[in-house]
Amino acid sequence: MSKIKQILYYSRNTRINRAIERVLNSQNAGFEMDKITIEKTPQKWHRILFGGRPNDSLLMADLIVSGNLYNYTKKIYKFNYQINYYRHFDRNRWISEKDKAALNELLYKQIKADPEFIYKLAEKIEEIGFKIIDLANKYKKVNWERKSDKELTYVFEKFSDLEFQLYGGGFWFYGWNLFFKNIYLNKFLADLERKSDKNEFKEILDNILAPNKTLSKNCFNCQERLAFYNLARKFAKFKGLPPQYIKKHLDKFAFLGKDYFRGEGLSYNQIYDELKQVAEKGEKYIDKNLKIYRIKNLDIDKFDLLPPGYKLIIKGFEKMNTATSLADEATNFFTYHLKSLLNEISKRLEINYEDLISMRAQEIKDSLETGRAAVSLEQLRDRSKNYALIFAKNKVYVLNGKNLEEYKKNELKNEIKNDIHEFKGMVASKSKRPIKGKVVLVKSKEKLKSLKKNSILVTEMTYPDNFFPTMKKSKAIITDEGGILCHAAILSREFHIPCIIGTKIATKILKTGDLVEINTDNGLIKILKKTK
Amino acid sequence: MIFTKKIIQLSKNDRKIAGGKSIYLGEIMKMGILVPKGFVVLAPAFDKFLEQNNLDKKIKKLLRKINSDNKQSINKISKEIDNLIIKTAVPKNMAAQIGKEFLWLKKNYVAVRSSAIFEDSSTSSWAGELESYLNTTKINLLNNLKKCWASIFGPKAISYKFNNVLNKNNFSVAVIVQEMIQSEISGVCFTVHPVAVDYNKMVIEAGSGLGEIITEGIVTPDTYIVDKKNKLISDKHINQQKQKMTDAQILKLSEICRKIEKHYKAPQDIEWAFAKNKFYILQSRPITTL
Question: Do B220 and A502 count as a contact with CB atoms less than 8 A apart?
């Protein structure tokens, strides 16, 4: 029974519980018994990815998270934390709020203790990525029809294990998408700006650390673009190109068109059409693009005023940029060059490719062992339509069909319940009477100028540097983070501006134009009217 | 000419050359409370540095150009002054004295902070106005020293001063160099509850790692309220699952802070750090707004 209980605390709705129970009893008879009980608090989820790839598959979702089952965060990345709750459905990903908090804290600590941490992490990701590429290169010419089940299993197992290692249970997936790129980088940039020479700062920002910088150097995508624009230049000059040029390009880069287990790779026509289009735009346009992809690595060591720890962190970010694209590219390299292996596996299991990639890696291995699909065809068809993959305390659960629908409905209900009309923070600066006013939500430095007088400033946190002039104009301040002794709190008291601090959620709930009432006796913020 | 003095040797008479922050640290050290070992680069060193290179006249000229309503003009002038200071070399005899003190510390890493001469002139808190540079090594010590000097002309500092009607010509700053404490927990303590203005309550905020993320409001720390009279923890706001300090640690810290408050007979704003089972006091100053 307890294996069912384990999943029950995702939903307290008994009707759904029963539904889940039914599925578990009928289908996944292989689960181990576990002592986790329903008394455990339901998890609050934190979404880490909105609307991922449209070509998402269950197998890929599994490869990202199941590394947790083997302790790969610790073993491979020497990072002493394992995610407890993770879920994936409707192309969104979540981890629990608790995991998020613990990860944040630990990542801060880790970088503080070892500024080279980010660099080492990226190095490891790259190392494993190249192992996957090597594996694909080794086996890409094999005729799988002539190989035994055992041999198929061997290569698939190698691949899936390397993928588990590569994604390390999804911890750096969170780390990169949220912690490094948002939370840590903002703080680091603020710090760096104060501590480095203005010109140096600009150069570093332009080349590496700009928060929206998506271009990663050294990666295959970047190399492809460079080669492509070089081809385009020839194309423009000679008004066309012999086919072998394009074929050569495809030999090297076609795999980049893959989207994990889906997609077909870049095609001749695709490249030809694009070349034609670009060539028509003229040489200036081509040169401009060539320049973009030709950026050399910034020699950070030349900034001799920068403390060594900072340099290591900057280098880490640079490397991580490349490593994260390499992770995708390596997977695509394998799925492109060893599509024949995956096709052969489906053939032997008497299912189609679409069914195969709706299985978990472990299920595929189990199937290969017995020679038939370990999951019923009906289930697989359901999963390929839609699925939820849930990782909870060292177990992975898959929901699909009706159960998934009911699970989602229930989650949606919870979200509506969360439609909060009032929330609380700590009072950092008092006013005699409750204050009413319109909200101005400020999420970045740039927008600060637009603050109107007498509006209520709502912000994630407040550095005196950038908020000081604006703060004085506002009627009141509400923040997500900070304590009553932080500089912003002190300044708000100095200027007699009512201030509620550390609400955690203000910027997520309030929008510019909302009418709110602030009570500085108890720290309560009431939403009187929402803007549409 | 003497350009440096050890913190422990400072006396009240040194306020004009060492700044309030360092005098406080010296006094707290003498009370037997743990303060990171260090020395001060005195204000006359800065004056000499300016004088010797004729920087003082150039700076005053630039400051006269400021239009206090125009943020851009403040930024521009601040930048110009900053460049002037950073570009200029520290006089050799001064650098030698500073180097000698650094060796005396016997540490690889130091923290470099500015101590403005009128910083805690109990009219303004100067909250977060002046810079500090952590994990400074021997190699970048002089550069960070100059950056500290320059920070007194930072845009926020200049505009802050205009807002507080301070004398335009009165720019002077000392710089504190202390051994770097690699804190496990750190935070701030107000010996009076600043929001409720309750003189019987003390507020301690604590977070993991360096104190900067608390003072800058980047994270929401744990907040503990201590009843001073009954020596009890009367309220706790734990921000993440785990309480950052044990109750015993909270009470121990509150005792240290009370001692400092008693000594000064005024409510204090104290920055502290906890490392290797010891509490260090990094800074103490009177609370300016109650």
Answer: yes
> Which among B135, B140, B214 is the nearest to A483, CB-wise?
B214
Q: Which residue has the higher pLDDT, A79 or A471?
A: A79
Cβ distance A201 to A207 under 8 Å?
Answer: no
Q: What's B18-54 look like in SS3?
A: HHHHHHHHHHHHHCCCCCCCEEEECHHHHHHHHHHCC
Pairwise CB contact (< 8 Å): B223 & A426: yes
Kindly list the residues from chain B whose CB atom is less than 8 angstroms away from the CB atom of residue A463.
128, 216-217
Residue of B128, B195, B203 with shortest CB distance to A430: B195
Q: How high is the ipTM of this complex?
A: 0.74
Residue of A nearest to B159 (CA): A469
Residue of B nearest to A520 (CA): B195
CB contact under 8 A, B269 and A488: no
Specify the CATH class of A422-529 in words. alpha beta
Q: Which of B126, B105, B107, B108 is nearest to B117 (CA)?
A: B126
**Residue A526 has which token pair?**
């009431």
**Band (A239; pLDDT cuts 50, 70, 90):** confident
Domain boundaries, chain B: 4-179, 185-286
A40 confidence band (pLDDT: 50, 70, 90):
very low
Task: Quote the minimal CA–CA distance from A223 to chain B in Å.
Answer: 38
Residues of A in contact with B215 (CB under 8 A): 485-487
For residue A174, the model assigns a pLDDT of 84
Smallest CA–CA separation between B208 and chain A, in Å? 8
* Residues of chain A found within 8 Å of residue B135, distances taken between Cβ atoms: 307, 309
**CATH class label, B185-286:** alpha beta
CA distances to A11, A15, A91, A386, A410 from A414, in Å: 9, 15, 19, 21, 6
In the numeric block, the tokens 């695709």 are attached to A270
Q: Which amino acid is at A33?
A: M
Domain ranges of chain A: 54-78+97-213+309-385, 220-296, 422-529
**Interface contact flag, B194 A490, Cβ < 8 Å:** yes
Cβ of A449: how many Cβ atoms within 10 Å? 10
Give the count of beta carbons closer than 10 Å to the beta carbon of residue B178. Answer: 23
The shortest C-alpha distance from B215 to chain A (Å) reads 4
pTM, two decimals, is 0.51
Other residues' Cβ atoms within 10 Å of the Cβ of residue B99: 13
| Residues of chain A neighbouring B216 (CB-CB closer than 8 A) | 190, 461, 463-464, 486-487
Give the pLDDT confidence of A265-295 residue by residue, as tens digits. 899 998 998 999 899 888 898 988 888 777 6
Element (H, E) at A473: helix A464-473
Which CATH superfamily is B4-179 part of? ATP-grasp fold, A domain (3.30.1490.20)
Quick one: B204 exposed, middle or buried, by C-beta within 10 A (0-12, 13-18, 19+)?
Answer: buried
Measured between CA atoms, the residue of chain B closest to residue A106 is B208
- The answer to whether the CB atoms of B140 and A305 lie below 8 A apart is yes
What residues in A contact B269, CB-CB < 8 Å?
A: 485, 490
CA distance B101 to chain A (A): 21
User: pLDDT tens digits for chain B (290 residues)?
Assistant: 899 999 999 988 888 888 888 898 999 999 999 999 999 999 999 989 988 888 888 888 887 777 666 777 788 888 898 899 999 999 999 999 999 999 999 999 999 988 877 644 444 444 455 667 888 999 999 999 999 898 888 776 676 655 554 444 466 789 999 999 988 899 999 999 988 888 999 999 998 877 776 777 777 888 999 999 888 898 888 876 678 899 999 999 999 999 999 999 999 999 999 999 999 999 898 887 66
- pLDDT single digits (tens) B33-84: 999 999 999 999 998 998 888 888 888 888 777 766 677 778 888 889 889 9
